[in-house]
Write a structure and sequence with these properties.
The protein has about 425 residues and is of the alpha+beta class. The protein is about 15% helix and about 35% strand. Strands 1-2-3-4-9-8-7-6 form an 8-stranded antiparallel beta barrel. Helix 4 packs across helix 7 (about 330-345). It starts with 6 loop residues before the first helix and ends in a 9-residue tail after the last strand.
């Protein structure tokens, strides 16, 4: 244990009066760990800690991290902390250094890009994080030369990658404010459901309705999630349809951008009856058989024959609603808002896509016994993101690969080469 690195930490605390740990042996792992603790002291801040040489190198970040590469957050370097501090949640008593409440806001592993010791010495440390909230490439840059007499100011910021988000679009500290360890799940669900009963005035950021919106997609998983709060929905065998509502007029849009409103006038009427002036709804259209299972061939036949009264629209998300952008809210709250809306005004061909409270393995096993496609696992605390993510996972009963069917026509006229005619899949299996 590098005791000399923890001298300052220990000198600043009276361990017979504070519940903070005095130390402990570090646990070896393939990758070093990080933790971010939300600390309500005299001023709210986020304690950002990276494991290096058996201790946690630590910075106080007043405003917390931002996924916008253009937003650079002040990060003041403080004393090294012991590895055992990573598990600390609780209240530091009044009169003690850092008095106030501490929660574990995020945790995971980090991977330095280069030698971390050299990076810290040079004042420029780039790294990759894989946590429950923090992902992708980040960087710490020291603002001035080291001074033993003063705490060192650094800047923490996101580097450009697939995880970046504009600050106006997403604020991770407000979207995901709670502990990844101790938040009472049932209390959270109750609060979300209670707040969602006022479906006409949902929480969210006031924002103009986007002209287009790409759906969130799920990543194929080989196993069930081991940590975190997840919900599980049946994987329906149908077409993914996003509904854009502008001026109280719904448009049913496929993943390929085709407007199918004219194909399903009854469904359009049911959506109008919800009374939404503007918004985006996300769901899947299916036709259910007598066995209670969605049958894709029956859906195709209904669409081809224009007998679409049997089509059901299972809704599972609401990214926008009546002038408010809900994408940054946790999934549990968006779904509670959607359910309250459907419970009060839903009718006809509209359905809420229920989730199951059992563990993932049991839900998947039951789905497979019923000869369903599988299960979609979704992180209950995650925002809505218009791309393929690991906060939505596909757990399939049968692994299979989709493919494009290509035909050709014989050469004609001046054409010397046969023409290829790809048959575009019509966005089957909405979360794929």
């Amino acid at each position: 244990m590098p005791d000399h690195l923890l001298k300052k930490y220990r000198d600043m605390r009276r361990f017979h009066e504070t519940p903070e740990p005095a130390g402990g042996k570090p646990k070896g792992g393939k990758l070093p760990i990080f933790v971010i603790q939300k600390h309500h002291a005299s001023q709210l801040h986020y304690d950002f800690r990276l494991e290096v040489d058996g201790v946690m190198k630590s910075w106080a970040v007043p405003k917390g991290p931002s996924y916008d590469p253009g937003v650079k957050r002040m990060a003041v370097q403080v004393e090294d902390h012991p590895i055992s501090y990573n598990r600390f949640e609780g209240t530091i008593p009044k009169g003690q250094y850092g008095a106030g409440s501490v929660i574990i806001w995020d945790r995971g592993t980090w991977e330095p890009l280069g030698d971390p010791r050299e990076g810290l010495a040079a004042g420029k440390l780039a790294f990759r994080m894989k946590g429950e909230k923090m992902h992708g490439l980040w960087e710490l840059v020291r603002m001035r030369k080291p001074d033993r007499e003063r705490q060192q100011p650094w800047l923490l910021f996101k580097k450009h990658d697939e995880f970046e988000r504009a600050a106006d679009d997403y604020d991770v500290v407000s979207a995901l404010p709670d502990s990844v360890v101790s938040k009472p799940v049932e209390a959270a669900r109750h609060a979300a459901t209670k707040g969602a009963t006022k479906a006409a005035t949902p929480r969210g950021v006031r924002k103009a309705l986007p002209a287009s919106l790409s759906p969130q997609l799920a990543t194929l998983a080989t196993g069930v999630p081991a940590t975190g709060e997840w919900i599980y929905e049946v994987k329906l065998d149908g077409y993914r349809v996003m509904t854009r509502i502008a001026g109280a007029k719904p448009a049913l849009l496929t993943r390929g951008g085709h407007d199918w409103s004219s194909k399903m006038p009854g469904l359009v009427a049911d959506i109008k009856a919800l009374g939404i002036k503007s918004g985006w709804l996300d769901g899947e259209i299916v036709v259910m058989g007598d066995d209670g299972v969605a049958h894709f061939n029956a859906l195709q036949n209904a669409l081809d024959s224009s007998r679409t009264g049997s089509i059901l629209y299972f809704l599972f998300d609401v990214p926008f609603l009546d002038g408010r952008d809900l994408r940054h809210l946790p999934l549990r709250e968006r779904r509670a808002t959607l359910k309250a809306l459907l419970d009060s005004k839903g009718r006809g061909q509209l359905r809420f896509s229920d989730d199951f409270k059992a563990d993932a393995a049991s839900v998947l096993q039951s789905a497979c016994r019923m000869k369903l496609e599988g299960v979609i696992a979704k992180r209950a605390d995650a925002p809505y993101v218009s791309r393929r993510t690991e906060t939505w996972l596909k757990l399939k009963c049968n692994q299979r690969q989709e493919f494009v069917i290509v035909g050709f026509t014989e050469p004609a006229g001046s054409r010397k080469i046969a023409a290829l005619s790809p048959t575009e899949p019509a966005s089957k299996n909405g979360t794929t």
